[in-house]
Each structure stands twice: as structure tokens, then as C-alpha cells.
Amino acid sequence: MIDWQPLLLTFKLALITTCLLLVISIPIAYWLAYTKSKIKPILETLVSMPLVLPPTVLGFYLLIAFSPANTFGNWLDTYMGLRLIFSFEGVLFASILYSLPFMVHPIQAGFSNLNSTIIEASYILGKSKTTTLFKVLLPNIKPSLLTGIVLAFAHTIGEFGVVLMIGGNIPGKTKVASIAIYDEVEALNYTTANWYSIILFVITFSILLLVYLINGGYLKRFWK
Amino acid sequence: MIQIALQKKLSAATGEMLLDINMQIEQGKLVTLYGSSGAGKTSILRMIAGLLQADTGTITVHQKTWLNTSTGICLKPQQRKIGFVFQDYALFPNMTVKENLLFALEKNQDKQIVKELIEIIELEDLQNRKPNNLSGGQKQRVALARALVRKPEILMLDEPLSALDKKMRIKLQDYILKVHKKFNITTLLISHDISEVIKMSDTVFMIENGKIIQQGNPIEVFTTKKVSGKFQFTGEVIDIKKEDVIYIVTVLIGTNFVKIIAEENEIQTITIGDPVLVASKAFNPLLQKIN
Amino acid sequence: MNTLKGKIASIKTNQSLSLVTIQIEELFFNTIVIETPDTATYLKIGEPITILFKETEVIIGKGSEHHISIQNKVMGTIIKIEKGELLCKLIINTKIGKIIAILTLDASNHLQLEVNEKIIVMIKTTEIMLSQ
């Protein structure tokens, strides 16, 4: 029988990462979509870096930054009681950074594709920026939000390099499914590795399929 | 009284253009801005709405300052009480027609106005539909109703009718006139249809290259010379046919076609599609009661 | 549209109607309009004004004496006749300018109108419009 813990840990990580990412990404995407600031390209590049950077690079620098041997890591440890290396919190933090573009990009594109006059129309009707964001903008980019949520979720499930670098391989804390697979293969337990792989494959396939069905309007048509 | 003085450098397709206008609009009047595209009409409306910043200028609405660049006063669009009907309608796709109107309500405002507007603009059958399932004319009506919910001090319409066919346009013109009269709202309309301007407005500002080149009563502005005939209409030439020694010109006035006999000299300056003034002495027409 | 230029010689007003006399060369034309000097700025004695009337409203008379109710008349010479199937167009030279008249072919045949013939051009008071 396989050990379910790595799978549960994976989904716990993916779920929390996605929730936090959603909260963080909406303001970032909103700012990127509507700003006229000159530093926009720099911020856009930074957000997109995880797309091209090897995960190990990110993991490596996070490892160094958070190490209690360093000033910053020490400060976190002493004053905040946070030790981010080889801990679930550290992996979570790294996941958020690493999946950021997968959440920000679809939402930013959603905002940009919206007809900008509906924002002006809302302002003219006396509505504040916040009301406009929640009542007008977000409801109209639901497909983009869904895409962002699913991509971030799926991407976190598939994460390997960053977790390994900063989290290591601690059962129940940082040993997520992708690392467990690697572990089992190393130990020549192909059957267990196969089980983990199949479960991951089926779940991610189902999630993605569901998104395409919803965004493509297939489900709506089916129910009618 | 609404006083507007605005200056702004605009970059147009033809290069830089200085928009410099000065308008006085009486409360409750319907005013049109007329001019070719790129003349700066939309920019003027957007500056009044606060969606576009003027370089320098002042806007005073009933003694209240909305904008004064020299004292640094500039109310946000939210603080200016305006209704704006956008060229592309700008309805919220996630809300039904009724929800679009309800969204426009101010805090603690009585919902009765929404009901009333749905009635006046005849949206009863459409109120539970989403904007994507509406025709252009229907969307325009919803946009008009939505703009009125707040009971704005100025209603502005940016070429609201240009995308509609003639019949729909006339129907919407009547809706606009109806609400204008009913709520006595000062209304600013952009149009480049002369017959529309004459039908709708009390005053027209003719705008060219960011400047007001003419203003006043539409008939006086558009007809180079005043004709004493009391039986006057403006329309569009639909057809010119030579018959016998004369020409028969068909003119569309509103939704009615009329035929007018013309002589060669007159035809030389007129082609199909031209806006024309049709005038006759009031002594000629017959009146008959319709039962 | 026949267009003649003159200046306003006199204005008689009663309520909202005005009877305006326009001097063109040494001739006087009358027109009645639903305007008064208060409602129309151009109604001022001495003001240059254009009178307009439709070709189809022109009446043609032959001979010199006509006991009819039309006051506006001018002598002229037909310089061109253009005949259609039902209608006929006359171009008439008068001392106040060229005037075009359109009448039925029957009427023109009945009067036996010919080029170079001297005729009288008449126009009803209620058919003349004023323009600045």
C-alpha cells in the first residue's frame, strides 16, 4: 500500500498556495493592467522570471536568504519565529513566488481585454475603484480567474526543484508527491512510483479538462 | 448655467492639435456638438466628465466648481453628477438590464426611479436579459436609462445613434427627447447628422480642429441664408429623377418621404445624400383632419 | 427657383403678418410673410433682400391689360422654349433679370407662345419667399 501523506501534502500545499496567490495576484494584475508607470516593464519581467529561470536557481537563492546563518534568515528566526528552510512555510513561500506568473498573467490579460469604458461607466455612476473592481471587473473576468486558479494549482502540484532545494525531503512537512516519486524511483520501488504518478496524472488531467469544459461553454450547452 | 472653458493639447492623426473651447450652456437645454471626427468633440465630453484631464480650464455647473486648474480644483468623475452614454454603450455584461440600472443607484436612493425609467424607456420585456442578448438599439436604450438613474445634472451622449439604422435612430431620438423633457436635464449630444442636430437641439456648437467655429440655433447655423418660408424641414436627398423638363427630387424627412419639383439650376448643386432644407410658404399646404 | 435681388421699400404689419414691398430696379414686388420686424431681423426698410419663387408658380400673360388680382408683374421676352411631354419651360428675359417659368404644354400651345415674343410674367403675393 502506498503512503498517502505525500499526496495529501501536495494538495494542501497547492490549495494554500492558490488561495494566497489569488489574493496577492489580483492587485498585482490590476496594477500591471492599468498602470502607466515607467517601472511597469521591470515589474512585469520580475513576475515572469519563474517562467524561464530554472527552479533550482530560485530555490538556491531562497535557501541562502532564509538560512539562519544569514542576517535576514536570522532576523526572521529570532523576531518572527519563522524558519523558512526545510519547513512547510518555506516551501509555501517558494511555491507562491514560483507560481506567481501562472496566476498573474491570466488575470492581467483578463483585465486588459475588458472594454475599458465599463470602468469609466462605473466611475461616472459614482462607484469607487474598489466597488468597480469587485462588482464590475472581477465578475467579468471569471474565466481568467478560473484559468489562473487552475494553472497555479496544477503548477504547484508539479513543482519539484524549488521544493527540493528549500524544503528537502522531510515526510509530512516537505515531502510532496513529486519528491516522493523521485524517492521511490531512487529506491527502485517502481510500483509505488507508478501509483503516485498515475494519481497525479489523473487528477491534473481532470482539473484541466474541467477548466476547458467550463471556459469553452461545453457544460452550459450540455445542461441546456 | 454651465460654464465650460477648456484647453488641451491633443495628438490627433494629423499631428498636434490645440483644443480650446469656451461654452455657456443654459440649464435644461439640449445642446449638440457637431463636427467631423477628430475635431475634438469626444475629448470635450470626456473632460467635462472628468475622464480626461484638461491642461488648463474651468468648469462651473450651477455655481459649483468642478474644475479650476488655476486653483487646483478637479472633482473626480464620481463626484461630478453626470450621466454618460458611451458610443459602445459600456453596459456591464455580468449584470442583467435591471441589475445594470440598480447598480447605478446611489447609496440610500429610492429604487422607484429604476422602475420609473424601465417604464419610460419601455424596457419591461428586456429587464431580465443580459446585455449580450440585446440588439444595438436595445443596448442604447439601457445605457440611456442607466445614465439617468442618478438624476444627473448633465447628461452626455457620445454619438449615441451613429451605429443604428435610420428607423431605430428616430425612435431613440424620441426617447432622448422624452427623457430630456421629462427630467429637464441639461443634455449634451455629439452628432454629425445635420437633420438629427436640427431635430434634437436648442443650440449647436460647430467644432472644427478643436475650436468652436459657429454656434447658435441649428437652423440658423446650418442654413447659410434665412428663408422666410414657415413650412421648413431638413432632410436627406434620396433620389433625383429627370422627368419632362423638370426634376423630381425625393427627400427623406424624418421617416417620411416627400417629393419636390426642382429646376435644373437647383439640381446642379445637389447630389443624392446631401442634407437639404425644404421650404415652402405657409400659404400653400392644405390641412385635413384625420379621423 | 427664381432668385431676384432688391431692397425692402415698405413694410405693413398686422399682428403676425407683414406685407413687404420690395424694390427691384424701378419695379415693386409685394409679398406676404408670417414674420414681423420684431421676429425677423431682415425686415428693415432699405435692407437688401433676395426674393425667391418657384418656376411652377409663375403665371404668363399675353397682351397688355389683365384684370386679375395679381400685382407682381414684369414685362419680358421669351428667349428659349423647352418642350417636354406634358410640361414646358420658358426662359424669359426681363429688365430685372432672367426668369424661368414652367407651365403645362397645353397652356403654352393655347397661348401660342414663341421665342422673341413679348409677354407678361406674373407671380402671386403669397408665393414669394424672402431670403437674406
From TrEMBL, chain A:
Domain ABC transmembrane type-1 per the UniProt entry, residue ranges: 7-211
UniProt keyword list: Cell membrane, Membrane, Molybdenum, Transmembrane, Transmembrane helix, Transport
CDD domains: TM_PBP2
Transmembrane residue ranges: 13-33, 45-64, 84-104, 145-166, 195-214
Subcellular locations according to the entry: Cell membrane
Superkingdom assignment: Bacteria
GO cellular component, one term: plasma membrane
Gene Ontology molecular functions: molybdate ion transmembrane transporter activity
Database matches in InterPro entries: MetI-like, MetI-like_sf, ModB_ABC
Keyword Magnesium appears in the UniProt entry: no
Bilayer topology: Multi-pass membrane protein
UniProt keyword Cell membrane present: yes
Residue runs in coiled coils: none
Alphabetical list of PROSITE patterns matching this protein: ABC_TM1
UniProt similarity note: Belongs to the binding-protein-dependent transport system permease family. CysTW subfamily.
Protein purpose: Part of the binding-protein-dependent transport system for molybdenum; probably responsible for the translocation of the substrate across the membrane.
NCBIfam families: modB_ABC
Protein name (record): Molybdenum transport system permease
Underlying gene: modB
UniProtKB/TrEMBL annotation, chain B:
Start and end residues of each ABC transporter domain: 2-234
Transport is among the record's keywords: yes
Organism: Aquimarina muelleri
Keyword flag RNA-binding: no
Keywords, sorted A to Z: ATP-binding, Cell membrane, Ion transport, Iron, Iron transport, Membrane, Nucleotide-binding, Transport
Protein name: GTPase
Domain of life: Bacteria
GO molecular function per UniProt: ABC-type ferric iron transporter activity; ATP binding; ATP hydrolysis activity
Matching SUPFAM superfamilies: P-loop containing nucleoside triphosphate hydrolases
Gene encoding the protein: modC
CC per GO annotation: membrane
TrEMBL record, chain C:
Domain Transport-associated OB type, first and last residues per copy: 69-130
UniProt cross-references to InterPro entries, sorted A to Z: Mo/tungstate-bd_C_term_dom, Transp-assoc_OB_typ1
Name assigned to this protein: Transport-associated OB type 1 domain-containing protein
